[in-house]
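forwarding from the other thread:

> can someone predict this with flavin mononucleotide?

sure thing
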Amino acid sequence: MPYIRESIVTTVNRSGKVHIAPLGIIAERDGWVIAPFRPSATLDNLLQRPVAVISYTDDVRIFAGCLTGRKEWPLSAIEDCPVPRLSAALAHSVLEVVEMKEDETRPRFFCRVAAEETHAPFTGFNRAKAAVLELAILVSRLGMLPREKIESEIAYLSIAVEKTAGPEEREAWGWLMERVQSHFSGS
Ligand SMILES: Cc1cc2nc3c(=O)[nH]c(=O)nc-3n(C[C@H](O)[C@H](O)[C@H](O)COP(=O)(O)O)c2cc1C
């Protein structure tokens, strides 16, 4: 399996409107592949402006927030780049698309790294952060997974949250669980 970095991807459309979404970028050769499912704003934007900024962050509220309608995270401009980064990024990479492989469900954009910068030290993950990230992925697939699988994974992940979550992880977990509950209640 290739290495996949779970990150927050910013892109802009033709008129410069910024879109932010969690995506896993996939290591390939000397670059990274961005593979957005159809339909998605990230896909539309990359077709309009073939540049993405990858923000690496340990603030899991941003992953959970993006999946639950909370997309207003502070952004910072990058010199000589049309796309901003997350202000909370510990580091970022500017990726330029060099090749696109069409696909009916999930086109692949092969990108080269045009620039990279570090902004703050990475001081490690706790188990609750990892659990929130896993729940965020489950939430992004609610429509595709059977209820029993979702419930059994949540039961396992909630142990780490109960034992190790701080206020930020607890908040992020709460946002995601609201989404799970409204999915199961059909609203
Ligand atoms: C950790 C994580 C990784 C994800 N990776 C991908 C991905 O590689 N491709 C994708 O299409 N969606 C991925 N998703 C789901 C997207 O974030 C979500 O569907 C999003 O709304 C994309 O659509 P948009 O660009 O229209 O916002 C991921 C979600 C999480 C939480």
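The longest helix spans residues 147-164. thats all i got for now
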